Structures are given as C-alpha cells and as structure tokens.
Amino acid sequence: MRAQPEASHFIDGVYVEDEAGKAFESIYAATGEVIATLHSATPAIIDKAMAAASRAQLEWASWLPAERARVLRRAADIIRARNEALSELETLDTGKAIQETLVADASSGADSLEWFAAQAASLSGESVPLGDAFAYTVREPLGVCVGIGAWNYPTQIACWKAAPALACGNAMVFKPSEMTPLCALKLAEIFIEAGAPKGLFNVVQGLGDVGAALATHEKTTKVSLTGSVPTGGKVYAAAAAGMRHVTMELGGKSPLVVFDDADLEDAIGGAMLGNFYSTGQVCSNGTRVFVQKGILEKFLARLAERTAKIRIGDPLDPETHLGPLISKAQHDKVMAYIEKGKAEGARLVIGGGVPEGEAFAAGTYIEPTVFAGVTDDMTIAREEIFGPVMSVLSFDTEEEVVERANGTEFGLAAGLFTKDISRAHRVAGRLAAGICWINTYNLTPVEIPFGGVKHSGLGRENGKAAIAFYSQLKTVHVALGKVDSPY
Ligand code: NAD
After folding, report:
1. Percent of the chain with pLDDT over 70
2. Residue among 138, 33, 17, 226 nearest 475 (CA)
3. If we measure between CA atoms, which residue out of 241, 55, 16, 75 comes closest to residue 144?
4. Which parts of 159-309 are beta strand (E)?
5. pLDDT digits 0-9 by tens, 277-321
6. Could you tell me which residue ranges the Aldehyde dehydrogenase domain spans (predicted)?
7. How far apart (Å, rounded) are the C-alpha atoms in residues 402 and 194?
C-alpha cells in the first residue's frame, strides 16, 4: 500500500521537494508498511514557505470579506465531495477506523471552514461615542500564523487552525505531525482549487526542530499548537521571546463523573466514547471515570459486557470499531502504563493485552482496557496515557468528587451524568475544565469554543471565541473639535 505524495511540502501553490532535508517515513499502523517517505524541511524550505505566506497574506487581507468567505465555503464543499478519499487517506495516515474517519475528520474540517466563512463575512468593529470625539475599532489580521499539529486528527486539526486564521485575513504555514504528514497536503491542494491565493496555506514537514524553527521565525506572528503539555511549554516559551500570539491545545486527564441517579446505559456509552474512540487517542478523553458507589458494581458489569463487543481489527473494514495505536512507540508506552496499573494494584476488568492472531501480528493493536479500583495516586490516574485505557474510580459524595476531579494539573475537559438538573449545573460550574459535558461526552461541534485551562492550554479553537485568537483590535480615536492643550 502506498500513499506517496507528489512531494513533501506544499508551498506557494505547488508541491516542493528538498532532498537535503532528513528523510522520514509514514507508516500504516495496521500493517507496519511504509506508505510514504518524506523529507524534513530545511531552513531554505522554511524561509520559502514563510516568504510565500507573507506575500499571500497581504493580498488576501485586501480582499473583500465576502470574497474570502467564498473561498472557505468552496473548500468546505470540495472536502465534502471528496470525503471518502480523504477519510481513506486519514485512516492510512493514522490507523483510525474508517467508520470514524468518514464522519469525524474531514467532515469536521469542512464544518469549520463553512462556519468560519460565515464569520469572515460578518467581522466588524465597534463605534464608541466620546462627546467631542469618537473612536472605532477595526479587527485586523495578525499576519502569518504557524500551525503545528498532533497526529490524532490530522485533517481536523489543520482545518480547525486554518479556518479561523484565514477567515480573519491571515496566512498560514502548517506543520503536520511527523507521524501523519499526508492529509494536510490534500487540504493545501483544496485551498488552491477553491481559489485561494498561492501561498495562503502552506505545508512544511518535519519533526520538533522544524516546529521550533517555525515558532521563532522572524515572519511568524502567531503559533497555534496542538500537542502535549511538555511540547506546549517549549513552544509557548519560544513564542514569548518574540512576543508572538499563541493558542495552546494540549493534553488532559479529564474526569467523567457518574452519579448514582444517572441513566446507566448513557453513562456507560459516554464513558466508552470518552475512552475508546480513536483508539483512546483523544485529548479530551474522560480517562478518570468516577462512579458513585451505589451503582459501581452494576456499572462495571455492564461496561465489561459492552466493551467485550468492541470490534478490533482492520481499520479499513467498515465494521471495525477500534484500529491500532499510531506507532510502535505509542503502543509500547500504553502497554507500559497498563503494566504499571497492574503493579500499583488496580484491578483489570477487561482487556489489558495485545489481541492475538495473524491479523494483528504486524500492527500496533491493544485491547480496549478497563481498570477498576483505581485510586487518585496511581500513575494511570495521574498521567495522560493516550490509548484505550479507562480508569474507574469510586466516590461517595458530590463534594468529595469535585475536589478529587479537580486534583490534577490538567484542565481540558470534564463530564458528568446525572438526572438532577440542579446538581448538573452546580457541578459543571465547579469542575476546572475548558469544556464540560452534561449527560454526554466528547462532542465538539465547531460552533462552540474548545480549549483548556491550567496546563491543558491557552486560547480557544472554534466558536466565535476563536476570532479573538486570530486577530487583533486597532482603535482609531477621532477628534471632532479643537485640541485642548495647556502648552
Ligand atoms: P507532541 O507534543 O509530541 O507533538 C505535537 C507537535 O509538536 C508535532 O507536530 C511535533 O513535531 C511538534 N513539536 C515537538 N516538539 C516541538 C518543539 N520543540 N517546537 C515546536 N514543535 C514541536 O504531541 P503528539 O504526541 O503529536 O500528540 C499527542 C498530544 O497532543 C497529547 O498530549 C494530546 O492530548 C494532545 N492533543 C491535544 C488536543 C487539544 O485540542 N487540546 C488535540 C489533540 C491532541
């Protein structure tokens, strides 16, 4: 199986190669096959991309907002028309099940382009009366924004960054994760087809060093990273040195609280979605599932029953629920956490191993895994695992669970299941998280802001809130009378 792109990078409207850059491989996680070989961006490639973006941004910002909106909408239409091919590529790039990529990746990217197209056409400032003067504000683009992606949602992440950035009149240089370099190149092609100026959206490939070079490039005005907390710390510090704007979409260890009056089937469904979707490789996953003691045994029994039915296997088979982990390194890291869970005294309810059989031999598969009897101090309850591993903890009271749920450096997401409407809002108000779901989990429509508090990040993607992170206000003060000067 091959998915070799025409060249590694997409700059100024065309594919570009520079074989002087270090070669790296894109591997299909289900089989271990090398599906593409790419070259990391050299300093010359980075400069070329930044110069192209800089030129294109000036042109783009001079277009009428409605014209910019039209390009974004066309790009959304093209993505939808090609959803099948793009989803297949995403499955090859990530190893995620095709039944997911068909509905959650390219289509979510299209949603965001369409939604921010509408925002582009309606961006405006305000007018402030000041007696013998008045002022007005203008929302201006930042310039060239750098986007750096994680590997779990390569198309969605590229679109979630590009859509608000371009809507506000910026250009973008995007560096996908080195694990999933292929999908963003297709998006770059689509923007050109949709009528964007050449250079408006460029893709350069590479590892962390390329990301670091982009984050500190003299032409970069903003860095938007989706990645882990340690990388976020480095990128934030690097961007700060040049007083650059940032959006940091980082990791989590989110709590999902199930009260004993919850609809049991819904709560279990939410917990499974929040731990096993994308083979557990979702930043907002509710990996600490706190279940009130009255329903704990029933919850675990039914959870095990439903988890046993998860179909693990070939990600290109539409019946498959759970594909492999992104890489051998991630597989081994998750297996080490499972071993740690056992060693520290958590009780394995189901899973915990590598599925057996010829079909799984070359892939990086791990069974969906549930631990019970997990306590707050265990490693699996404290660190982000980023794999299909659910930790179930028990609790007695609302007061206790809120305190324990908040007892983490992370604060990306939270969820709760209860039928008590007052308790639902009370607890949502007290959970320290950027997004909190009541009686559902992990829904991220583009209309609502998404992002973390505490170490999970800064800024917001999606929703109207994202506009503030891809634009800046200029205030113009206009005198209507004489200058009142004592000199
Ligand atoms: P990662 O931090 O290893 O890498 C993310 C990106 O940063 C990659 O493109 C990488 O090449 C680049 N990078 C690495 N070092 C860099 C540096 N010093 N300077 C600039 N760029 C650098 O993350 P990952 O393993 O690809 O993704 C998994 C992590 O991403 C998890 O922690 C997950 O929670 C998080 N994530 C967060 C969100 C969110 O929206 N909050 C979404 C998806 C994933």
Report:
1. 100
2. 138
3. 55
4. 171-175, 201-203, 220-226, 245-249, 255-258, 288-292
5. 999 999 999 999 999 999 999 999 999 999 999 999 999 999 999
6. 15-476
7. 48
Q: What pTM value is reported for the model?
A: 0.98
**Which residue's entry shows tokens 């707050």?**
376
- Return the best residue to mutate from 156, 231, 330 for the ligand 1 pocket (most ligand atoms within 8 A of CB): 231
Q: Is there a catalytic annotation at residue 183?
A: no
On the question of pLDDT at 1 being above 90, the answer is no
Q: Which helix (H) or strand (E) holds 120?
A: helix 106-120
Mean pLDDT on 374-387: 98
Determine the Cα–Cα distance for residues 68 and 65; give it in Å rounded to an integer: 5
Is CATH 3.40.309.10 what the domain over 255-438 is classified as, yes or no?
yes
Could you list the beta-strand ranges (E) of 373-443.
Answer: 389-395, 413-417, 435-438
Q: What is the CATH number of domain 9-251+456-474?
A: 3.40.605.10
For 454-479, b where at least 16 C-beta lie within 10 A, e where not — what string? bbbbbbbbbbeebbbbbbbeeeeeee
List the chain domain ranges: 9-251+456-474, 255-438
Q: With beta carbons less than 8 A apart as the criterion, state whether 177 and 156 touch.
A: no
Do 177 and 153 form a contact (C-beta atoms < 8 A)?
no
The residue to which tokens 């995620």 are assigned: 96
What is the distance between the terminal CA atoms of the chain, rounded to a whole angstrom? Answer: 79
